[in-house]
From TrEMBL:
Residues 196-215 are annotated as: Disordered. This is MBL fold metallo-hydrolase. Gene3D superfamilies: Ribonuclease Z/Hydroxyacylglutathione hydrolase-like. SUPFAM superfamilies: Metallo-hydrolase/oxidoreductase. It comes from Reichenbachiella ulvae. Its cofactor is Zn(2+). Keywords: Hydrolase, Metal-binding, Zinc. Residues 13-195 form the Metallo-beta-lactamase domain. Pfam families: Lactamase_B (PF00753).
Length: 215
């Protein structure tokens, strides 16, 4: 059984997720921890639960989702996995991070790439990778259909969708990703987004003003 714990980090109120199961193996998704207090909050939880971190994954590589990459890689001796189409997005962070006040941002690079159709395994758990560009060119989501779980990054939010005015963003492509990749799942599937509260596929299909039935 997958357990999900989320933290809200950095001035962008970004959701960082730790997923683990009964084996105590765990993965960290989109570590946004920048301040020491945030890093300690993450590591204290992992230590208190007795978890072994086996994967570090970025759903996409905008600054607010990658601030803790270097810390996690060093602390837990894990590589960084992301989609190859977001490699340039990750490289660009060091250029603009200081403009947002992140003057101590530590640059990282992916150690391996993941693509649609790949599977992320930890403990007794398997997550399927889906390619969902539009907000970022190499955006992915991670899904476990058995438990109706989707770690959705910045594709679909409670009552909203990811912004498309950043480099590599495209509204039409984002709508295609949502409708062809996410809206095909069960209405009961819970989406854990990169910002804000969780939602369900059914709720967003019915009520989302950007991509739902009323849009």
């Amino acid at each position: 059984m997958i357990q999900i714990h989320n933290f809200v980090f950095n001035p962008f109120y970004e959701n960082t997720y730790v997923l683990y199961d009964e084996t105590k193996e765990a993965i960290i998704i989109d570590p946004g921890c920048y301040e020491d207090t945030e890093r300690n909050e993450l590591s204290d939880f992992i230590e208190s639960e007795g978890l072994k971190v086996t994967h570090l994954i970025n759903t996409h590589c905008h600054v607010d989702h990658v601030l803790g990459n270097a810390y996690v890689m060093k602390k837990y001796d894990v590589g960084l996995q992301t989609h190859p189409e977001d490699e340039a997005t990750l490289r660009s962070v060091e250029v603009y991070a200081p403009a947002y006040g992140f003057t101590d941002y530590r640059t990282t690079s992916a150690t391996s790439f993941i693509n649609e159709g790949d599977k992320i395994s930890f403990g007794n758990t398997v997550l399927d990778v889906y390619f969902t560009p539009g907000h970022a060119p190499g955006h992915i989501v991670l899904v476990n259909e058995e438990q109706n779980i989707c770690i959705g990054g910045d594709v679909l939010f409670d009552g909203s969708v990811g912004r498309t005015d950043l480099p590599g963003g495209d509204f039409d492509i984002l709508m295609k990703s949502i409708k062809e990749k996410l809206f095909v799942f069960s209405d009961e599937m819970t989406v854990y987004p990169g910002h804000g509260p969780s939602t369900t596929i059914g709720k967003e299909k019915a009520t989302n003003p950007f991509c739902g039935e009323q849009s």
